[in-house]
Each structure stands twice: as C-alpha cells, then as structure tokens.
Design a protein that fits this description.
Layout (H helix, E strand, L loop, with lengths): L19 H4 L12 H4 L4 H8 L5 E4 L6 H12 L2 E6 L5 H16 L4 E6 L6 H5 L1 H6 L3 E7 L3 H4 L2 H4 L3 E4 L5 H15 L7 H11 L3 H14 L8 H8 L11 H15 L3 H13 L4 H16 L5 H16 L3 H15 L5 H15 L15 H5 L40 H19 L3
Parallel strand pairs: 1-4, 1-5, 2-3, 3-4
Helix pairs in contact: 10-12, 11-12, 11-13, 14-15, 14-16, 15-18, 16-17, 16-18, 17-18
Length: 439
C-alpha cells in the first residue's frame, strides 16, 4: 500500500497545536502519496531535482491533493527561497514587492521559488507581469490552479511553464491517511466499518477534507461511542460536491452526460444527470442541453426525440422541483436508448460551409417567381415543372445554382427512422436519373 499524503511534522512525543491536516504534512517529497507519478523515485519532480534543473511549473488538480505542500517541499529540496502569495488576496502592488525581494535575493546568489495559489484568478495583465521575472531567472514560478490551465492561463505564461497534473486521492491513500492520523492521535476513529467507508467517500479525493472531517468526528464522540453511517452524516453534514457551475467541474459533467447519451449508456447518463442535480445545476440548463443532444446525436433517426426533450423541458418549467427532474430524467433515458444519427448535424455543417464558400450564387431561374413582365422576359420561372402535376409527384428538376454542381450533404444511415428516409432518397435518386436521361 502507498505511504500517506501527510506525515508527522513534529518531534517524537510532541503534539503541536493546529489543525490535524497541518500536523500531518509531509517533511519530504517522497512522503507525499497519491501523486507518485510526480513525487515518487521515478516521478517528474524527482527527476528534475536529480538533474539540478528546475523550471517554472503549473500544478493543476482538485483541492486537497498536495499542491501547496509539494511546492514548499520542492523549494526545500532545491534550496530555493520560498515565497507564497494567493491570487485571491494579492494585487499588482503585492506582486511588485515580491519581485523586488526576489531580485535582491538573486543579487545575493539565491534564487526564489514563488508559489502562486489560485493563479487562474489573476487577470491577463497580471499574468503577463510574471513573464519578465520568469525569463531572467529572478523567480522559478510554481502556480497552482483547480481550473484547466488551457482555458484560464495566458498562452505566453503556459509556454514558459510545464503543467503537472495532480490526481484526486484514491480510497487506498485516504484510508492510509486515516490510519496515520489515528496513530498520531493514539486513538481510533469512532466509526463502524460502513461509516468509515462513507467518510472516505465524503472526502471526494481531498486529503485535507478527510482529516478535517475526522477531527469533527472525534470532537463529537462521547466516551465509548461509535457512529454508524447514518449518525456520521448527521454529525459532519455531508460536504458539497466539488463542482463550480461556472468552471471546470460544470463542463466535465455536462461533457460526461452528453457522451454517455451519445454512447447509448442510459445508466451512465442517469448517473451524470443526477450528479449535476445533486450539485445544484440549473435543471433548465440541463433541459436545454438535452434538446441539443436530440438534434445533434439522434436527429432524424428518431424524430420524436426533439419532441420528447422539449416536452420534458416544458414539464420541468411547469412542475418545478423536485417533480420536474423526473421529466428530465425520462428524456435522458429516451435519448440514451434512441437510435443514433448525426447525419442531419453533419449535413447542416457541410451545407453551411458550401454556402460560405460559393458566394451569392443566383438560384436557377426556373424556380424563381416572376411577378413582373421584365422578370418573365429574362427567364424567371421559365420551364418550372409543378411537382404535384408530375408522375409520382416528382419532377427531378435541378434546384442548385447553375454555376454549382449538384451537392450531397445528407446521407442518412440504415438506423431507426432514417432507414425509411434512405429508401425514399434512393427512390427519388433513381427517378431523377431516369428523367434526366442518365439511365
């Protein structure tokens, strides 16, 4: 089993004051768990330290996975001065002070590791201010972010830093972390087996959160008292899911929902739908996205999909919560189990591209109305064949501009209702060839 994320940071027999997560912080990189791909003997950071070359870095990962701790330990193991600021509480004046202190240290022969927590909170101009001190070696920048750096950080800053991904802690690492806390406290956590498993799930991959929850349990327990899962949930008041409706968690879950529907997996689709409901997502936003899935991924393979999703959206609007969520869940299952086709979606994109590429071509004159004498004289409407007067109600005329070859955008697959549409298109194509003399 892996070592623990945090380890004792005090002399033997001494128990310093402070929160449990601070008392269990690692004292060297090798003690950090859950991030062995970075901190293990063959990890990226270990290799950097051995090479003697440490460049600027961006740590990307969820809360409680050791980003701040690793940055501090990294400075210690490379003998760099450690400076820490938070983008939430710092402005331009604070950055100038930090940069000036780093310049003075460099003149004295010592480089600075500048750790910037929540670096994505800085605006573009503030992010640009790091570039000169990174380029001239004044600081080794280590930025930490919970959001996707590709979207939140300047391209110029990203090009000068290496992004390292921190993973949520797995159950094994969290369990070992609890064991270390119990060893340090010299007492067991007063939970039965099921409650202990629930506590690990509540931590949601966050080591700091797990230890904070453990402290709450110890504070609440009376002498000899052992909590079951139900009592535990009342004591710690379950943590809100890691989910920000305007940020990465939001986009990750809606992407997972969409792809589960597209992949015809109703169980996975329902799971992600409920994750979003549980996190407080606006159900009408989910309804709009289900409508999009109906037109993008089901299309004419099941023309009822659009009607079902629109009806579900309207039902939620009418019923409200919590009854309305069931209508959206029903629509989600319908979409996931419907035959899939993106033929209409693909045809639309191709037709739009053709419209942009070919300019303002005049439609063939025979399909244009001729309300004036002049227009009749110039050929408008001449030769038009009224389809309802033709055999099979089909004339087979050309409707594309004369300067443009006939195009084929819509290619329905042999699935769902589009199987019938394909039969019609094949039949009309045969008639068109016959009446144009191609056969």
């Amino acid at each position: 089993m892996a070592d623990d994320l945090f380890t004792r940071n005090a002399a033997p027999g001494q128990q310093p004051a402070g929160p449990l997560p601070d008392r269990l912080r690692p004292t060297r990189l090798g003690e950090v768990v859950g991030q062995e791909h970075l901190t293990g003997p063959e990890g990226v950071l270990a290799r950097m330290i051995r090479s003697g070359s440490l460049g600027s870095l961006v740590f990307w990962g969820p809360p409680g996975t050791g980003k701040t701790t690793v940055a501090r330990l990294l400075a210690g193991e490379t003998e760099l001065a450690f400076e820490q600021i938070s983008a939430i509480f710092s402005g331009v004046a604070d950055l100038k002070k930090v940069f000036e202190s780093a310049r003075l240290r460099r003149q004295q022969g010592r480089q600075t590791l500048l750790f910037v927590d929540e670096i994505h909170r800085f605006n573009r101009a503030q992010q640009d201010s790091f570039l000169p001190v990174m380029e001239d070696g004044t600081v080794v920048l280590v930025g930490a972010t919970t959001e996707n750096p590709s979207f939140e950080l300047n391209a110029a800053l990203l090009s000068r830093a290496r992004v390292l991904v921190f993973h949520p802690l797995e159950s094994e690492s969290l369990a070992r972390l609890l064991e270390r806390a119990e060893t340090m406290e010299d007492r067991s956590l007063p939970l039965d087996g099921e409650a202990r498993a629930v506590l690990l799930r509540m931590a949601d991959g966050d080591g700091r959160a797990l230890l904070t929850l453990a402290e709450e349990v110890w504070r609440a327990a009376g002498d000899g008292e052992v909590f079951d899962a139900e009592a535990l949930q009342k004591i710690v008041q379950r943590r809100a899911p890691v989910y920000d409706k305007g940020q990465d968690g939001h986009y990750n879950l809606i992407s997972a929902l969409h792809k589960s529907v597209r992949g015809s997996d109703p169980d996975a689709a329902l799971y992600y739908l409920c994750r979003m409901f549980d996190a407080g997502e606006d159900p009408l936003y989910i309804g709009r996205r289900l409508v999009r899935m109906a037109v993008e991924d089901i299309g004419l393979a099941d023309p009822q999909a659009l009607a079902v999703t629109n009806a579900a959206k309207d039902a939620y609007d009418y019923l409200g919560s919590p009854e309305g969520e069931l209508a959206l869940a029903q629509a989600c299952i319908y979409l996931a189990t419907a035959p899939k086709s993106n033929a209409a979606y693909t045809a639309f994109k191709q037709a739009m591209a053709a419209a942009k590429e070919n300019g303002s071509l005049l439609p063939p004159k025979h399909i244009l109305n001729a309300p004036t004498k002049l227009m009749k004289q110039t050929g408008y409407g001449s030769g038009y064949q009224y389809d309802h007067d033709m055999p099979d109600a089909f004339s087979g005329q050309n409707y594309f501009p004369e300067a443009m070859d006939r195009q084929k955008f819509y290619d329905p697959p042999e699935r769902g209702f589009e199987r019938e549409i394909r039969k019609r298109l094949d039949y009309w194509a045969k008639l068109r060839r016959e009446r144009s003399g191609d056969e």
